[in-house]
User: What shape does this take?
Amino acid sequence: MVFYIVLLVFTVYTLLDTFVITRVYSNEVSNNLSTGISSEDYNTDSHNITKTANSYSDDNIEITVTEYEQNDTVIYVADVRLSSASYLKTALANGAYGKNVTAKTSEISESVGAILAINGDYYGARESGYVIRQGTLYRNTPSDADALAIYSDGTFEIINQSEISAEELLEKGAVNVFSFGPALVEDGDIAVDQNEEVGRAMANNPRTAIGIIDDLHYVFVVSDGRTQESTGLSLYQLAGFMKSLGVKTAYNFDGGGSSTFVFNGEIMNNPTTNGKSIKERSVSDIVYIGY
Assistant: This one.
C-alpha cells in the first residue's frame, strides 16, 4: 500500500512539474542591439505614423496585412519592410525564461508595445533545442529539429543543430534562434515533402510561419484551421503558399491552438485548439515588430 501511495504521489508531482509548476530560470534581458531605441523612448509624434485597419507605416516600418483564402483556409499575411533589423524582435512571456512560463500572444504583444506580433516556437514545451533571444543565450542543448537563426543584419539561416553550437551561433552574430521547425523553404525551394508533419500533428492545422523575401523584407503568416470555415493547412501546403509569396527562406513556428496574429492591438485570426471555441492559447514567446 505504501508503495502505491508513493507511486501515486510521484506521478502526480511529475505531471504537475511537467505541465503546471512554473519555474523561472532567468529574467529576459532587454537588448536593443542596433538602434538603442526602446518602446518607452519612442515618440509617436516624430515618426510620421499612418495607420489603417490593414496597414501601418512610419519612418522605419511599413506593414500591409492581406487576407487570403486557399485550400479552404483563411490565411493572414503581413508584408513587412524595415529600415533596420533591430525592429524585428522577440519577447518572452512575463519577461522571463523558464518552465511553464506562459501568457497569451496578445498579452505579451501589449506588454512590449508590438505593432505586429505572432506566436513563436513555444520553447517551454521542450527540454532541448537552442534558445537565443535578443542576443541572450538561454539554452544551448541541441535538438534534432531544424533551427532558424536570425542575424543582426536581419538575414535568415536554417541551422542543423548537430553541426554548430549555440555559442558559435552567437559569435556569428545570431540575435534570435528558434528550434521548432521544420524549414519550409530554403533557397527559394520547398524544403518539406507532402507527408512531413510536426510530431503527431494532424495533416491540416492552424499554422504560424515567418519568411524573408529580400533584405529587411519579411512576411509573417498565420492560418486558421480546425473549424468549418477553415480546414487548416498541411506543412506542404504552407510551404507552397510561402513560396508563392516569393520568400527565399521560410520557417514553421508552433501551430495549432498557439497560432495567433496580432496587429495594431487586435487579434486578426481565429485561434482555436479544438475548433469548438475561439480563444488564445498561452505560449512561451512571441516574434514581433516594434520599438
Observations:
- The first strand starts at residue 23 and ends at 27.
- The CA atoms of residues 194 and 236 lie 5 Å apart.
- The chain has a mean pLDDT of 89.
